[in-house]
Amino acid sequence: MFCREHVAQLREHEQAFRDKGAGLAAIGLGDRLYARLFREDTGITFPLLVDERREAYRAAGLRTASLLHLLRRDNATARKRARAAGHRQHRTGKNPLQLGGSFVFGPGNVDRYAHINETFGDNASPASLLAALP
Amino acid sequence: MEQSLSGKLEGIVLPDSEGQEIRLGSLWADSPAVLVFLRHYG
After folding, report:
1. Could B39 and A98 be called an inter-chain contact, meaning their C-beta atoms sit closer than 8 Å?
2. What SS3 string covers A44-57?
3. Which domains does chain A have, with CATH numbers?
4. Which positions in chain A touch B10 (Cβ < 8 Å)?
5. What pTM value is reported for the model?
6. Do B29 and A30 touch (CB under 8 A)?
7. What value does the mean pLDDT take over residues B18-23?
């Protein structure tokens, strides 16, 4: 649900990223079939990469939640927000406790922005990603 | 000197949804890139 909400936000701002000369790509867990279905469902056109072994997740230092995160007030608020926007939970995949993150890099190996998600609905805002672009 | 995160990630190669292998560093080699890690494709 939060992935779909985040992707919908990114899609809304995709042209703004392009206007600043930036590319956009997403990485997810699961397999290629998951990714293809997700692409068809969400209509996204930017690259969707598949990290079945969580190699990039580990290298990026992304966190793993515990079941206690389900009880957090900020998660309840985020769930309400996502549901109000029409997003629903679909398949959760093999690693439902893996948390995400958002980064702005480049050109070259230059780190411009990092947001490591603290819990399920904690995604970087498109505005903060845009502001980090050169 | 500590390696940048982009430097740690640049050599990782992942397939896209169509099976094409992409080296992460190629995404930001010549222009900036927004890279988003989703939790899962659900």
Report:
1. yes
2. CCCCEEECCCCHHH
3. 2-131 (3.40.30.10)
4. 109
5. 0.83
6. no
7. 95
